[in-house]
Input
Amino acid sequence: MTNATTFTTVVASIARAHHELATQASKAVNISLTLRNWLIGYYLAEYELHGTDRASYGENLFANVAEALAQTGVASCGKRQLYAYLGFYQAYPQIVRSLPAQFHTSVMDALANPQKKVRSATALSQIEPQQLLSALSYTHFEQLLTITDTTKRNFYEIECMQGNWSVRELKRQINSLYYERSGLSHDQNKLSKLAHANADVQQGFNIRDPYIFEFLGLKAAEVMSESHLEQQLTDKLQAFMLELGHGFCFEARQKRILIGGEHFFVDLVFYHRILKCHVLVELKLQAFNHENLGQLNTYVNWYRQHMMTPGDNPPVGLLLCTDKNHALAEYALAGMDNQLFISKYQLELPKKEEMQRFMDEQLKQVERGDADE
Output
């Protein structure tokens, strides 16, 4: 900086330094996460091939690994995710050349004739692994792994990198059959320009990606709330539900569930020891609409299929909506046709009037500026 520095230039310089270094930091975290997932896939592949006690686990290997890793505090390593990491390693073995020094030598030594393996896997790809890692997040790779044809996958790699596509845009282009349309097009350059003209591009890497915050040891509640106001209300709501004394047992907050390769978050999850069912709570800072109810109903149906255990009743959903001066509580019965249970459910869960009074009181406190008192 020179003596001609002005207030405007110093602010611009600070802002530029902040944004550039923040981008570098988030990119570094994303690359580290991608390499971690690749290494997990590598270790699993090697164990399946050479593990001395692998026969003891058989088909339960991935479930056992997932359980053991959970006990050590390693995040994002459920059974399904481990299979995805194995597929990632198998689809992109060339990433071995981008491993940090502390891993590179041992992995290269362990691989049988690694250069031959890498060349055969990348015969159709001219993209260097470091370029892939610098341009694509692991969530991009997740979408690319849904494509089994190597030529087609390479096509989307190149287009995604050239267009700086967000994950959502990459998924949209795959679903729109862009590759197939390009193959049938008489003017592929024109089609490419159209595809990129209104594309949703990524603004740097997203440090709020669910994989990222788990990788960094952050809690979902610290980074996933939609707003500060919603965060405050969720804090109070959690305490309110437990204080009702109707049998609510707190289980999870911002519970991440995976549906069809996409991540969703349930605001609050309780288990009701009297009703013997999960109670899912969603808070929306808006007036009630059918989309909110549809979202909650999806979560309830997922919990019914994946989380119910013998003796459990079907889960229920509690939707809280507000337009700043009104609260509306709606229950998603989600197909519960046991009339006796419904009667008990209506008796044990909080009444709409209770929930509306709670929401109104909390919103008034926030408006007075004393929500944290």
User: Anything to note?
Assistant: The chain has two domains: 7-197, 219-368. The longest strand covers residues 248-259. The radius of gyration is 25 Å. Residues 277 and 309 are 9 Å apart (CA to CA).
